[in-house]
Amino acid sequence: MEEPLLRVRGLQAGYGDVQVLWGIDLDVPEHSIVSIVGPNGAGKTTLLLTLSGMVRVLQGSWHFAGKDLTGRSASEIVAEGIAHVPEGRRLFKTLSVRDNLLLGAYHRQDRAGVERDLEFVLSLFPILKERSSQDASTLSGGEQQMCAIGRGIMARPKLLIVDELSLGLAPTIVETLAESLPRIREQNMSILVVEQDAATAFEISDFAYVLDSGRVVLSGRSRDLLERADVREVYLGM
Q1: Which of 17, 30, 110, 178 is deepest in the core (most CB within 10 A)?
Q2: Which of 80, 98, 93, 217 is nearest to 151 (CA)?
Q3: Where do the domains of the chain lie?
Q4: Which residue in 86, 16, 17 sits closest to 51, CA to CA?
């Protein structure tokens, strides 16, 4: 069996004396979209922060592209090819949309490649092209999410991590963001996304993991999970 791009085994993590994750196993295959769902407080954001080097690993390990990145710093993890779009977008106020996007490529030296990726982002989200000189902090919530995702793409990662893809956004914006994911994958990227809406998560992803109280309670191919009566009842209200 082919080794996954991201392989997490027995991962435990937390904050100070508070443990949040309890033995997480998770795989992200090459060129796949993997979603993580679960109730508030399940540990979804903590998992992404741990994989980004911002929360300390207590036990277990994780490998990326064949390398053990357990305990590595955030800057080292970015250099290995992981970009994190955080919950809340966290754009740079007073900077334009264009400058926010270009900051995603701060570590790159391939100027021609940066320009190509910028064109791709602006074609993916045309509204950003219209707003390119506008202060990014004055964008609508949906436009800010597009800009945050675009900034992640500009890092040219192998894995794009997106926390809370659609939180607080209008259905039309959610649809636009969902439709963008396959096009991003076509750029030779895999995607790991936390999504509050289970139905949307299962529809946009190839594989899904359900977290509860810091543990994986369900996992599998998204289409298979959608067909399970217990999943439909508990997570989809059907």
Answers
A1: 178
A2: 98
A3: 1-81+164-173+196-238
A4: 86
Q: For residue 56, what are its two tokens?
A: 């300390």
Which pLDDT tens digit goes with each residue over 140-193?
Answer: 999 999 999 999 999 999 999 999 998 888 999 999 999 999 999 999 999 999
Q: What is the number of alpha carbons within 13 Å of residue 35 lying toward its C-beta?
A: 25
**Short-list 92, 84, 77, 6, CA closest to 46:** 84
Residue 50, judged by CB atoms within 10 A of its CB (0-12, 13-18, 19+), counts as: buried
- CATH architecture of structural domain 1-81+164-173+196-238: 3-Layer(aba) Sandwich (3.40)
80 CB-near residues (< 8 Å, 6+ apart): 64, 65, 67, 69, 72, 158
SS3 for 190-231, per residue?
A: EEEEECCCHHHHHHHCCEEEEEECCEEEEEEEHHHHHHCHHH
- Which one-letter DSSP state was computed for residue 86? -
Query: What are the tens digits of pLDDT across the range 120-129?
Result: 999 999 999 9
